[in-house]
Amino acid sequence: MFVRGELEKIERKVERGERLTRDDGEKLFACHELSWLGALADFVRKKICCDVVYYNVNCHVNLTNICVSRCKFCAFGRDVETRGSYAMTIDDAVKLVEEAAVDPNLTGLHIVSGLHPTWTFENYLAFVETLHQKFPALYIKGFTGVEIQHFADISGLSVEEILRRLKSAGLQSIAGGGAEILTDRVRNLLCPKKATADQWLNVARTAHKLGIKTNASMLYGHIETLSERVEHLIRLRELQDETGGFQTFICFPFLPKNTALERDIRQTTMWDDLRTMAISRLMLDNFRNIKAYWVMLTVPVAQVALSFGANDIDGTIHRENILHDAGATSPRSLAEDEIIRIIRDAGRIPVATGGNA
Ligand code: SF4
């Protein structure tokens, strides 16, 4: 339960630019005054980023959906012999990007994939090398902290060496996925085979040390408690204090369809999505960019989220796969002029990022 006087104290802190505590975060999650939360987050958003909203013209490349981890919340990962499993060749990946590059405004690639049981690190590296050589003008954001840790595990190389090799092959930043909820309890229950919370944070810390920016995310709306959402945000905020290397934070509502949790967990409501967006903006006082990822939120909710703390709406994508396997009802891609219209209608100024958001 919250008490109005306590919320007013939080409001004063936000107005003075003071950091919110764990206790404040928990009070915000207990509060049901959505419009108040939105106005407070919007106040902070405006102070940090003015009215600019970032988007990019990008292409998602998912090299394979075959994955040894088989996380309970994932509808994308499959075993080798399961129907619908695939593994791209380098030619397949080049063809996909050539198709997307018909759009002269294409500026970035977003490469994330399953943890293939027999691919070596060199297999993954070869995709980056080839795509960078063939499309040198495209910004390459690729691999999550989970994938980077997997490459270290299968190759025997350190995380630092993996990152150095990827960087010299053409990788420019690391994707934000795989963070899920950064507590051992949640990860042991949902995804015990992949990077732990500490390992995920260590990949980000190491990347930042090497001058590689990374994104961060939070997958919420499954088995986590509201306190664990706050814990997650605080762990990211602490690392950002230490390195300053996070570029963008993305809120991912869990989509249960076709996952192992489908029968037990219902999809988040718009109300939860908007309050989580707003609280993320308020707690992550050292993150400049908060993204409303339209694929998961749906386009209308992502547009409204621009008034709940978000200043980024992601990109055109070309052909989204991962979340459509989990029943995402949004389109698989958006035209650039539609993204611009969505942003302008919300009273904001669209700015293309050049692929690096
Ligand atoms: S979330 Fe990633 S690591 Fe987990 S099963 Fe899906 S593809 Fe594999």
In whole angstroms, the N-to-C terminal distance is 37 Å
CATH fold-type name: TIM Barrel
Kindly provide the radius of gyration, computed on alpha-carbon positions and rounded to a whole number of angstroms: 19 Å
**Widest beta sheet: strand line-up:** 5-6-7-8
The small molecules bound here are: iron/sulfur cluster
Number of domains: 1
Low-confidence stretches: none
CATH class: Alpha Beta
Q: Number of helix segments?
A: 14
Describe the global form.
globular
- Secondary-structure element order, N to C: HHHEEHEHEHHEHHEHEHEHHEHE
Fraction in beta strands: 5-15%
Amount of helix? 40-55%
CATH homologous superfamily designation: Aldolase class I
Count of β-strands: 10
Short structural description:
This protein has 357 residues and is an alpha/beta fold.
What do these coordinates show?
The protein contains 14 helices and ten strands. By secondary structure, the protein is of the alpha/beta class. The protein has helices at 4-16, 22-30, 34-49, 90-100, 121-134, 145-155, 159-169, 184-190, 197-209, 226-243, 270-283, 294-297, 299-305, 336-345, and strands at 52-56, 58-61, 108-111, 139-142, 173-174, 213-220, 246-253, 289-291, 312-315, 349-352. The strands form three sheets. It has a four-stranded parallel β-sheet, covered by helices on one side. The chain has one domain (4-352): TIM Barrel, CATH 3.20.20.70. It is globular and about 60 Å long. The longest helix is centred in the middle third of the chain and has 18 residues, at 226-243. The two termini are 37 Å apart.
